[in-house]
User: Fold this.
Amino acid sequence: MKPASKEDLIEFAKKADEGKAYMFQLHYPFHLPGKTNAREVVFFGNLEVVEQWKRELNKDKDGQLRREVAAESKDSSTVFRIFLELVKGGLSVEGADQQLQGAGKLGQEWSQFTSQLDARLKQTPDFRELLQTLLQFGELRLATVDKQKQAIEQAVNCFTTLGTAAIEFGDESATAMLVELTKHAAAILEALAEKRPELIRPFARKSVQWPVLASVEPEWPVQTQKQLRRVLELGEATLHGRLDPSKAYNLENVSRRYARGLVDTLEKNRCCAEFFSTVVQVAKAKEKKDGIKVLFKAVPAWAVAAAKLEPFSRETAEAWLDVGVEMLKKECPHLPKSSDWARLKTHWENRGEKQTPGRMWNSIKDALRSPVKTIARAPHSRPVAQTAQPNLGNPISGSNKA
Assistant:
């Protein structure tokens, strides 16, 4: 992405005075697991603004598309009904052709088959019963799909309305209904996972969160997680499916915590890079429509490099470490002086050698090399129970424990 020109900056300043200028940041800063800093919140806020613009820009187009889909669905139902009547013998070829003309483009396309079908039925009477069954099934299936579409729209509107009433106005009845409906939906999902897991496994594999019904029993989280991992393979198609559960989630060790934060941040950049072109397109359309001005902060070199990384594994860990250390240097230039890495200064002092920025960064990279590799799941391994304890004996790796 090209840096903003002087003209762009001048125009941006003018629009900013009018409240019509936006500055977007298209990358994640470094963060430790479990922590969110202000710049990441800004990133998500920017994405939400883009989604609002996208919905606004597509409002008329979406409305037209819905009307076209509804018309096609209605025409499809009409065509099924006409051919069913033709097969049953309750409608002549001429009558069928006449009615098909009122079923839009689809009806006109299918009108060419009425005479052929009538001739075939006269030649093969046994064919009539089979066609009746197929047409009845098709008509029923089409009606079911229409009902499903209506149900989806109604459900979304229902949850949105109840959520707004509960969150914005503190409506107790809306809150109660929202809770009951959510429990009902989660119960249906659990039943589906038990009876037809193959239907939802592809969705669960791409997600790191899944709705469940919590229990008051002390052991329910462990049992539920085991069930989700075993049956639905939750998160297996995400970064978490590439991590070793016995090491990647045990973050008391300083080096391992930084290694995990480094890998998480780079993975988010790899995923979000796919959205950048969409964000730019939406922003340009918004600029043209409403006369606003949008500038994007320059994407740092490490974020560009992160987007080109191969999926995380023990084999690619060194490449991830190289990009990750460059990210740390850019986003956390004072990291070598932080308390987390004070032991490295002591390490060099004990050796009687001068502490330099280059040596400190090399030491940090050396300290992260093993953790970055070991938090990756071994090839062909499956998730296992967490049993490993943090390594407290390595003076380079460090620990928060006394």
